[in-house]
């Protein structure tokens, strides 16, 4: 029996870049086949060729054993290829049923057939064992439920192949389990599933086989059984990373950040904790628990209705991000593309944005100072390539994240809030970012770290504050914290604060 998909000898070049070189990929029906690799390894390019976005320079594609030329994205869908990208492509104001039917809404004589629309959505959701109301407005759902709607939309087209690109990047490990049930149900139906993720533990749990790409080349394809995360990392980066989450032992000094009774109705209530110089405090909890909302209020992006924030004993009245920054607080947001960078601007311009006042005199920016600052930050954080005039959107995800961090470090903050600092970056860049975090703590910066990856929180934090439905449900020391205790507190099963 022929494989659902064979990609043979696929090569692709862009001006000055060899993105793929002679890559082979074979995916069987009823298989979850993971593709892993660092940012820039060629994963996205290979999938865009499968989706008809790009044409390969060399190589052939076979679907069900028949050689095929995929002329475009519509052609790919017609041939049974479903794509679920990392960024959701849904309409928040429409219902679940309407989103599942996007682009193929049932109608007769130009009139929408709402009953048929609802019935088709019910059938799709039941087939995926996805428990949700088809008439619910999408924007009212959790991120994990919206991700399942995105998969249901692709599944409704009855594809033979589905590509899932970082489907859990916005989900906690607890919430990802619902999505895994959907993936396993599709595998049982005989759908060939290509699964791309930087979360290596979920790859090992979910995938039948794993293909590793590095620098646009296929390094190895192996059964996942018996494969370890350490072996995958070695294949991905070409070297051993003995500790992806390094933890430095640094002296912890005086209290720098004090949060007391912080409240914002509907988001969080009576949140209190402190962070000391040289300390990394992890802020854990399920998606929707209020972690990001608390961080935004501390920095001044959102206004708290009650409570106080102090830096070095002085009360911070952060009504705007500018005032938060002036008080010594910097915030690296969870969505770097939307909130962290100006994508089309250069590395230099992005880094200088928060400190233009320091670089200016008489209303004029000193280009010499701006260039020196950018070069210093690029060198300190290992941004690659170190070309300060290069647009940020031409960098890999990991290097874009380094630019976001560099931008705020240029402001020399006393408190650094990091919201999902390694989301969507590869293991090599993840290790680099954690090394940077360790260096900042060693220099006396007070760090508040938000992450949905429990291994990350556990590995780098000195203390962990857990939120459940907007309230502090536990505060755990490094020695007593583990995944079980955090999840008990995050789900409200145990209150040990």
TrEMBL record:
SUPFAM superfamilies (UniProt xref): P-loop containing nucleoside triphosphate hydrolases
Membrane topology: Peripheral membrane protein
Compartment annotation: Cell membrane
Residues covered by the ABC transporter domain: 5-240, 247-494
Gene Ontology MF: a single term: ATP hydrolysis activity
Pfam family, one: ABC_tran
Signal peptide: none
Major location (coarse): membrane
A GO-annotated cellular component: plasma membrane
Protein's name according to its UniProt entry: Sugar ABC transporter ATP-binding protein
Organism placement in taxonomy: Bacteria, Bacillati, Actinomycetota, Actinomycetes, Micrococcales
